[in-house]
């Protein structure tokens, strides 16, 4: 029960409960009775707990102002309690510096509250008693600690944060567990920030990231500028991702996105035999230049031996990336994403036709040209394109000069189907993986560390899905695979491959044993028996043998067995070679090599910092820029028969949005 006391100077009787309060003639609230007790507390913790509970029950927050362990001159241990609003706020920022900055809307709870309690130890048995020095408060009760989190709630916050839960979801969960909890969203953010700062104390953001990569056994490379310690490029990959990459290295899909974290992020993905996309590696790059791409791909190359190199690499029309791939993986076939090419053709040619009917016919003919299965068919459809759309020379000139003349071997079926690509001729998979990643990261305002934590959780789930899918292929037999001709393949081949074989077997009646009418496309592109091969096995009543299925589909584990048994010996030989080179070098070279080794073995000893973000004076949004295709579909761009797509200014808003044009685009679904 609070008591209102009005002090009127010397006319009042002396009251020890307000001694030294400095209340003067203020109206104060007296809580002396609430904290007066004859109880002997068995420990210091019991005293602190009782005092805080009394404060909470009266709407007050009691804190420990200071404590003394005693010992010197037979001095007993003491502890002083005060109100959280006691004392006076002291500015910690220099006035001159503070004036230059924009003032924040901030305040203080300090109001000089005189409340003071003293706990005194009674002897050697750790017994304590509580004395009221000043029992008044110069403010009304306001229990601000009702918004504070308990230790249990903090532990819940940490666990949910590691599971990538959003602050609003954390707050909702806490309130569901305790209906009387008055925690606000601001408290959740503050606690998360304090825990993060406590974890990252003394270390820079880059050191924290490198430490986390090391703790989780990530494979990591980075390089910094010659004249500074600013990290220029960073390449890293999960150890399980390396195992998956070595098991399924045949097709890689690459895409470099910007605005994921204010820097270009090169994402390299692959595909398992169960058609699940996996992230092989990531690289934060300083710029989308050939030198940066070459460095990142060379790091990827070091993880692969001569027997597990990619045979097909799919990408967008990124010239620096194409040059780097040709330099690092010269034996791999380079494909361009045909879906992106079709979108670019649509975006470019949309303004060159009078209406949507002619544009739809043109896009239909273009897609049929891209899907040509023979060179004769390709030339025939190209001639038809010239004949039917001769009135649109700018559109024909664009598709020929930009795509067909130089790059047709990289996206037209007649040339792409000459190698084994397992049905992956577009970069849709890496686009899908990037979309998940962008949704997970949210925006580009996060740090390297927070970005890594989210990506790490995504990879852990990804690896689990892959392992489960491989296990299903080994243990579960689908009912539509019970044919006798598949008995040697069940449990030894991916279910995806079995589905393709079942679909191909439906062509047997129309194809028969004629290989010319079969075309054998599935054999060339997927490494699976084609229709006329299945007909031959049926004619002899023989099941399809396991050896006629490409090893890609038979790999149902992630075990890596290098064919070169002397791999460890080669590494030791390389180290001795480096040692001899170091001994033959001059003093400056030796010092440089030693610093590099020190950086690798003890990263925290190096003063590395993250690269500086390049400020943009025009666009400060964290969303990705629209592609030309997306701008074309939005009908917010202007086209001319000659000029390229031009976007409107950000500052100019159209008064009226023109009606959207409905355009049909053929999308090829990969098997």
UniProtKB/TrEMBL annotation:
<dbReference type="InterPro" id="IPR052579">
    <property type="entry name" value="Zinc_finger_SWIM"/>
</dbReference>
<dbReference type="GO" id="GO:0008270">
    <property type="term" value="F:zinc ion binding"/>
</dbReference>
<dbReference type="InterPro" id="IPR007527">
    <property type="entry name" value="Znf_SWIM"/>
</dbReference>
<keyword id="KW-0862">Zinc</keyword>
<feature type="compositionally biased region" description="Polar residues">
    <location>
        <begin position="1"/>
        <end position="11"/>
    </location>
</feature>
<protein>
    <submittedName>
        <fullName>Protein FAR1-RELATED SEQUENCE 5-like</fullName>
    </submittedName>
</protein>
<dbReference type="InterPro" id="IPR018289">
    <property type="entry name" value="MULE_transposase_dom"/>
</dbReference>
<dbReference type="Pfam" id="PF10551">
    <property type="entry name" value="MULE"/>
</dbReference>
<feature type="domain" description="SWIM-type">
    <location>
        <begin position="509"/>
        <end position="541"/>
    </location>
</feature>
<feature type="region of interest" description="Disordered">
    <location>
        <begin position="1"/>
        <end position="23"/>
    </location>
</feature>
<keyword id="KW-0479">Metal-binding</keyword>
<keyword id="KW-0863">Zinc-finger</keyword>
